[in-house]
């Protein structure tokens, strides 16, 4: 009977120390997914890639989103920088359409595209050629 009480009191003491002790110095390490997204997006810089407009901040997972209309608005620049042909335009337009997904919030609505995923798919498509 003494052991369950000892375990209970030890747990309470540890929880109290954890609550009182300032473990968090205000800077947390990003989780693996967020760190990977930040690294990936930093490698996808420059005019040959799609980017969010107006310095939109990534979501809590580190993902930056654009609308299909924003992607189509950047298509000419991306094609010019990658030296793509008019025939590639249709393939990239289809890629933008395939990358579009509904916004999870019904209040916001509309379609959105994960910018990093779109850029990775575009790189993979171009490497196959």
Strand portion, in percent?
Answer: 5-15%
Number of helices: 5
**Into which percent range does the helicity of residues fall?**
55-70%
- Dominant shape: globular
Largest sheet: 3 strands, antiparallel
Structural class: mainly alpha
Mean pLDDT: 80
Instruction: Give start-end ranges of low-pLDDT stretches.
Output: 17-25
Number of strands: 3
Rg: 23 Å
Query: Which H/E pattern describes the elements?
Result: HHEHHEEH
Spatial arrangement of strands, main beta sheet:
1-3-2
Distance between the termini: 72 Å
In short:
The chain is built from 5 helices and 3 strands. With 129 residues, the chain is mainly α.
Structure description:
- The protein is mainly alpha-helical.
- It has a domain at 48-129.
- Helices cover 57% and strands 7% of the residues.
- It has five helices and three strands; from the N terminus they run ααβααββα.
- It has helices at residues 2-20, 32-43, 68-82, 86-99, 115-128; strands spanning 65-66, 100-102, 111-114.
- The protein has a three-stranded antiparallel beta sheet.
- A hairpin with an 8-residue loop joins strand 2 (100-102) and strand 3 (111-114).
- Helix 3 (68-82) packs antiparallel against helix 4 (86-99).
- The protein is globular.
List keywords for this structure.
129 residues, mainly alpha, three-stranded antiparallel beta sheet, 5 helices, 57% helix, globular, Potassium-transporting ATPase subunit C, KdpC
């Amino acid at each position: 009977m003494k052991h369950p009480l000892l375990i209970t009191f030890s747990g309470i003491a540890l929880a109290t120390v954890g609550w009182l002790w300032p473990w968090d110095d205000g800077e947390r390490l990003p989780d693996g997914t967020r760190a990977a997204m930040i690294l990936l997006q930093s490698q996808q810089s420059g005019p040959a890639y799609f980017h969010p407009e107006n310095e939109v901040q990534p979501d809590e997972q580190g993902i930056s989103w654009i609308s299909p209309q924003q992607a189509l608005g950047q298509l000419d620049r991306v094609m010019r920088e990658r030296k793509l042909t008019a025939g590639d335009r249709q393939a990239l337009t289809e890629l933008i359409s395939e990358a579009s997904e509904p916004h999870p919030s019904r209040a916001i609505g509309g379609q959105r595209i994960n910018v990093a995923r779109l850029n990775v798919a575009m790189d993979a498509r171009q490497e196959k050629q």
